[in-house]
Amino acid sequence: MVGNKEKAPKDVTHVENVRLSENGHSIVILDQSALPNRTEYLTLSTLKEFYDAIFTLKVRGAPCIGIFAGYAMAVLASHVAQEMAPKIKNPEEFSKADFESFFGRLSALGEELNSSRPTAVNLSYAIRRMLGAAQAAYASEGLKSPEELTERLRSEATAIHKEDIEMCRKIAEAGLTLIKDGDGILTHCNAGPLATSRYGTALGPILLGKERGLEFHVFADETRPLLQGARLTSYELSKAGVDVTLICDNMASIVMKSGKVQACFVGCDRVAANGDTANKIGTSGVAILAKHYGIPFYVLGPSSTIDMATKTGADIVIEERNPDEIKKKFYAEPMALPEVKCYNPAFDVTDHELITAIVTEKGVIRPPYEEAFRALFG
Predict the structure, then answer these.
(1) How many angstroms separate the Cα of 85 from the Cα of each of 59, 88, 138, 139, 341?
(2) Which residues contact 313 (CB under 8 A, 6 or more apart)?
(3) Which strands form 27-30's sheet, in the order they lie side by side?
């Protein structure tokens, strides 16, 4: 893993947080765990580095993880191709047995990568898509070597990235119809350009509206224990010139009660078939408060986040993380005794009945969600 420091990006809506290296053998990422105090880019080239980057939140946000996973599979495919090269008897013929060996190895690497964060559906979606592209390319395009297949997978990963940029723009446009100039908006965790591409999802309407001369006031929850709202959301909004106030998570109620919030915008890591939504821990509490105070609660994310194979939120696997994130992280000294137990789920599930609407690149989706999703996906 190679790292280098650069100046903070001036235009956060177009920050290049993930990209394939020029030679296609590594991925360059903006290390989100170092923000907001340091702007550091890392060059990653191995499965262990890819896994660690996701697990340690150097790369995070469901859409961003999907983009990263696409590029990771392309790089891993190049590794497999290099491993296979000496074993292929006829370099001019990529036999069925050769492909099966290539695909089996790549599938195993993808399965290991997928275990880094089980809750975010975009990770598994991107891995499945890349494997599907490999099968389709070999079956229909007459590829003659693992190198040709690897090049095809690089193109597929680039397509995933471009599609996300377009999806974020459409989500921003749809979400902007739900708010008006001068509104107060509360958000939880981070779903801006750093977590996606370009405008982001939950922050997309705010950033797009700012570009068009609209003014909003955003209350950003700090999002304990990893502080993505403090470190990342307030960073992005401040850099974009948006009026933002950082609040502790337990201050959301008083801000809502005082009439300062007209809408809540959050992202999502997985949406079940009935509309139940997994997002960063604390999201469901925000939704309950919003329901109590009569404030609309909107979930914004790409349609790839909707997992029709997951019936309800009860079927979503919730990642549990190291207790030291609660006790020690960001503190000079531990804030609890060593023997004190901690429960540290990374996500929670917001019941579909608390969600006013779900906004995707296909538009604003309102309940009943299961029926709306079936119409959407056919």
Answers:
(1) 31, 6, 17, 20, 51
(2) 272, 274, 276, 277, 278, 349, 350, 351, 352
(3) 2-5, 40-44, 27-30, 18-20
* Domain shared by 78 and 211, yes or no: no
Active site residues: 269
Residues 147 and 194 in one domain: no
**CB distance 298 to 356 below 8 Å:** yes
Cα 26 → chain centroid: 20
How many helices (H) and strands (E) would you count in the chain?
Answer: 12, 15
Residue with tokens 């801000």: 255
In a 3-state reduction of DSSP, which class is residue 21? coil
| pTM, 2 dp | 0.88
- In tens, the pLDDT along 11-60 reads 665 678 999 999 899 999 999 999 999 999 999 999 999 999 999 999 99
Domain carrying residue 177? 173-377
Q: In what order do the strands lie in the sheet with 270-272?
A: 306-307, 270-272, 277-280, 347-350
Q: Is the pLDDT of residue 10 over 60?
A: no
- Last residue within a domain, chosen from 168, 189, 207: 168
Rounded Cα gap, residues 7 and 9, in angstroms: 6
N residues, the chain: 378
For the chain, the first-to-last Cα distance in angstroms comes to 43
For 7, phi and psi rounded to 5 degrees?
-70, 150
- Number of domains into which the chain is organized: 2
Q: Are residues 290 and 350 in the same domain?
A: yes
Hey, what are 287's tokens? 């939704």
Classified as helix, coil or strand, 92 is coil
Distances (CA, A) of 234 to 34, 141, 209, 327: 15, 47, 17, 23
Token pair in block for residue 203: 């922050």
What does the DSSP assignment read for 142-206? ---SHHHHHHHHHHHHHHHHHHHHHHHHHHHHHHHTT--TT-EEEE-S--SGGGSSTT-STTHHH
